[in-house]
Design goal:
Elements lengths: L1 H7 L2 H6 L6 H23 L2 H4 L3 H19 L5 H22 L3 H8 L3 E5 L2 E2 L1 H4 L6 H10 L8 E6 L5 E5 L13 H4 L10 E5 L5 E4 L15 E3 L8
Antiparallel strand pairs: 1-2, 1-3, 3-4, 5-6, 5-7
Helix pairs in contact: 3-5, 3-6, 5-6
Length: about 240
């Protein structure tokens, strides 16, 4: 039965669809032309358009892929048509880049602005609301940079490329801060067992607490805390 099924398959339709076998050679030529066109287009855009993608530049790259992909495999779409689309994309890119270089306000609209995520060992909570960035995602990024507690960080900035720049305190200036290692994050508490430094689990605000102190954070009004760490960063 299985053998009969395979014999009944229309192998030509399965492999090349409605086109003739000779179209495979044409696809090779079309793909070669479009790949060369993409390389040339990216060379025209320059290194900035490849190395450090903003949202606008990502749209340009996706547009290139869409314009190049269809002519590679669809016979009814001519290569010249895709070249016209490429020309329009490059022209729009160069026009917008021109205005970006002459207007800071226009640049901010098109590419966004760097956002401060951590300042002096505490989360900049208001800025988190502007970005689609989860706390756990940020903590993961910090751990990859060798950070074990927020008191090691003077400032952390999300760049327009989406990458996070971190500037650290010198070892002798490291503060008590919120520990961010996975094991430590499981030990949240709403009461203070003994006097010492504690950090708010929500905003990272750190202060000395005693067993009788109020557990409401004065910065964000949350009530979960962790014993702070003053561990230095290992590089």
């Amino acid at each position: 039965m299985r053998q009969a099924f395979f014999l009944q398959l229309n192998w030509k339709e399965l492999l090349v669809g409605d086109e003739e076998w000779s179209f495979l050679l044409e696809i090779v030529l079309r793909a070669f032309i479009m790949i060369i066109a993409i390389v040339l287009a990216l060379r025209i855009l320059g290194k900035r358009g490849v190395k450090q993608l903003s949202i606008f530049e990502l749209v340009v790259i996706i547009s290139f892929g869409s314009a190049a992909g269809d002519p590679m495999i669809y016979k009814e779409i001519g290569v010249l048509t895709a070249m016209v689309v490429f020309t329009v994309i490059i022209a729009v890119y160069m026009l917008i880049t021109y205005f970006i270089g002459r207007s800071q306000r226009f640049e901010n609209i098109m590419e966004g602005q760097p956002i401060c995520l951590i300042s002096e060992g505490c989360f900049s909570i208001n800025n988190f609301k502007k970005e689609a960035l989860g706390t756990q995602e940020l903590l993961s990024e910090l751990r990859l940079k060798g950070v074990s507690q927020l008191g090691q960080i003077e400032i952390a900035i999300e760049e327009i490329s989406g990458e996070i720049s971190v500037f650290y305190y010198e070892d002798e200036e490291v503060r008590f801060g919120l520990p961010i290692m996975p094991a430590a994050l499981k030990s949240k508490q709403t009461q203070f067992d003994a006097a010492g430094y504690y950090s708010c689990c929500y905003c990272g605000f750190t202060e000395i607490k005693s067993a009788a102190d109020n557990n409401v954070c004065e910065k964000c009004e949350h009530t979960e805390w962790l014993p702070s760490s003053n561990k230095k960063r290992v590089t």
